[in-house]
């Protein structure tokens, strides 16, 4: 029969795992500096210091790349909320505190580098960007009313969530770099994506250890995250519009979410091969499998609708050109 432990007991038993993985992260994470990824020679003063303020024609990014860059940056900007969540659920003691501090510093570096690049290259309107940052950070990020109603705001849920979220963010950053049509932006976003992958590995290893320690409890957290996943940028200004644009152009779409984030992570944890769940755990696993089958059908419908829209748009362009 699988063990059932309290949140404090789980965190205490997993502290050596966290310590091992903090040490591992520090040994493999490369040192890099934001200023090395910013083309400073493209910069010039704005009106207050004798130059000219931003205008749309100054941006060399496409609408898709601009929407993705803004979404990625505003997501990083909400770091104070993420830090609060991490400090609350992981604690600031021992290895957990060491990790929260290291992770926070690295995520802050991402925001610094992205903002410097966007402002220096005049890729986005800096006034609108700052207004959006103020609004998004002021709103914060935390459990929704639905999540609180399900009483799913605990340690295991947090570890499971950030595992999927960090991997999703890696995919989004990497694909954003590919559409920027700028080798400097591409290198910057590759660097950030590599960091996000290292963060994901830390959380994935901790969650994997939790599955060994308390299989049923950890499975419940994993399944709950998969079935109710939301990106951390949800709630930022224009999030829905930008998200649709990013999905339409393959930066982060339902197929990528399923095939590049959800399925590989579940395979890594051997969710559907494990034999250490109780009868109740096996029932929960079956429920998760049913959900994934439904998600696959949703993905196929999305792809079919997207293909029809793209084909229609192409026909319209041909008619206008002809």
UniProtKB/TrEMBL annotation:
It comes from the Bacteria. Pfam families: FA_desaturase_2. Residues 285-312 form a coiled coil. Keywords: Coiled coil, Fatty acid biosynthesis, Fatty acid metabolism, Iron, Lipid biosynthesis, Lipid metabolism, Metal-binding, Oxidoreductase. Its cofactor is Fe(2+). Gene3D superfamilies: Ribonucleotide Reductase, subunit A (1.10.620.20). The keyword Oxidoreductase applies. The keyword Lipid biosynthesis applies. Belongs to the fatty acid desaturase type 2 family. Homodimer. PANTHER family: ACYL- ACYL-CARRIER-PROTEIN DESATURASE-RELATED, STEAROYL-[ACYL-CARRIER-PROTEIN] 9-DESATURASE 7, CHLOROPLASTIC. This is Acyl-ACP desaturase. It comes from [Mycobacterium] zoologicum.
């Amino acid at each position: 029969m699988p063990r059932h432990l309290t949140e404090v007991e789980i965190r205490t038993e997993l502290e050596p795992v966290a310590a091992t993985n903090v040490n591992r992260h520090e040994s493999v994470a490369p040192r890099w500096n934001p200023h090395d990824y910013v083309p400073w020679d493209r910069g010039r003063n704005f009106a207050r210091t004798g130059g000219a303020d931003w205008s749309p024609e100054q941006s060399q990014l496409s609408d898709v790349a601009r929407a993705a860059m803004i979404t990625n940056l505003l997501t990083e900007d909400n770091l104070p909320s993420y830090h609060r969540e991490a400090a609350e659920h992981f604690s600031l003691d021992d290895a957990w505190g060491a990790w929260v501090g290291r992770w926070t510093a690295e995520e802050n570096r991402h925001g610094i580098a992205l903002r410097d690049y966007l402002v220096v290259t005049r890729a986005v309107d800096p006034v609108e960007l700052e207004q959006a940052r103020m609004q998004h950070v002021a709103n914060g990020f935390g459990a929704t009313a639905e999540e609180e109603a399900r009483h799913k705001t605990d340690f295991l849920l947090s570890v499971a969530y950030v595992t999927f979220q960090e991997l999703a963010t890696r995919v989004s950053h990497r694909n954003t770099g590919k559409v920027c049509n700028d080798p400097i932006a591409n290198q910057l976003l590759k660097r950030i994506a590599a960091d996000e992958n290292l963060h994901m590995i830390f959380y994935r290893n901790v969650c994997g250890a939790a599955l060994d320690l308390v299989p049923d409890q950890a499975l419940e957290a994993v399944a709950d995250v998969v079935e109710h996943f939301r990106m951390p940028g949800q709630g930022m200004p224009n999030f829905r519009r930008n998200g649709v644009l990013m999905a339409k152009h393959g930066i982060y779409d339902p197929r990528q979410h399923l095939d590049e984030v959800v399925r590989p992570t579940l395979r890594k944890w051997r969710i559907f091969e494990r034999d250490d769940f109780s009868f109740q755990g096996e029932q929960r696993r079956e429920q998760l499998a049913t959900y994934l089958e439904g998600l696959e059908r949703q993905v196929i419908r999305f792809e079919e609708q997207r293909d029809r829209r793209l084909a229609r748009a192409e026909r319209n362009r041909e008619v206008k050109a002809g």
